[in-house]
Write a structure and sequence with these properties.
The protein is mainly alpha-helical. The protein is built from ten helices and no strands.
Length: 209
């Protein structure tokens, strides 16, 4: 059921765009990384920038897809009837939608970031340097999971509560606190700042050398 929920998100317009931008992020930053590697420059900063792009393009698009009226589409396409015929409750279907959105967002965010981190490890030049960059790969994995669970989960919850207005609710939840922080000049918890903090901690610290 989780695989079905994820596949339905992937087949939406936003879901398809998410994979397009994931591939574009990997390709674009990969070209830059190849140039930096040839010049002997560190790649940790590049992976960190790719992580930010991946969160807000592929990850954001998956969240937007999950925030749509998924429940209404599933009811129209007979998914609710299919689930009921297998003895699954409405709550089980909602949980599958939530987990499917988290999984798809994690994959969309993680694919380009992990590819770049593994590339940085592959061109390290020595086994010792490659081992040192293992932390970069682990940091990329952790970031992908946290960003995917956060964005996919928020998208699914916004769609569950807001229905047709789910995308608007998602925008308010994600961008509202961030905009308020800019207006009042005080620290307010926001999703963008939280993800940026994880990038700094996991990908711009010692692992990013």
């Amino acid at each position: 059921l989780i695989a079905l929920a994820r596949a339905r998100i992937a087949r939406t317009s936003a879901g398809r765009l998410a994979w397009f931008f994931a591939a574009a992020t990997a390709f674009g930053f990969g070209l830059i990384g190849a140039g930096l590697a040839a010049a002997g420059s560190p790649l940790g900063g590049l992976v960190a920038r790719a992580a930010a792009w991946s969160a807000w393009l592929p990850g954001g698009l998956v969240a937007f897809a999950a925030a749509g009226n998924v429940r209404g589409r599933d009811r129209k396409d007979g998914i609710d009837v299919l689930a009921a015929s297998r003895g699954l409750s409405v709550y089980a279907l909602d949980a599958a939608r939530l987990l499917g959105a988290m999984l798809h967002a994690t994959l969309a965010v993680g694919a380009p970031v992990l590819a770049l981190a593994l590339f940085a490890m592959a061109v390290a030049g020595s086994a010792r340097a490659a081992f040192a960059r293992l932390g970069l790969v682990l940091g990329a994995l952790i970031f992908a999971i946290v960003a995917g669970v956060t964005l996919g989960g928020l998208g699914a919850i916004s769609g569950r509560i807001g229905r047709e207005r789910g995308p608007l609710l998602l925008a308010v939840l994600v961008l509202g606190p961030w905009m308020i922080e800019g207006w009042i000049g005080r620290g307010v918890f926001s999703i963008p700042d939280a993800l940026e903090g994880i990038i700094r901690m996991m990908l711009r610290g010692g692992a990013a050398s």
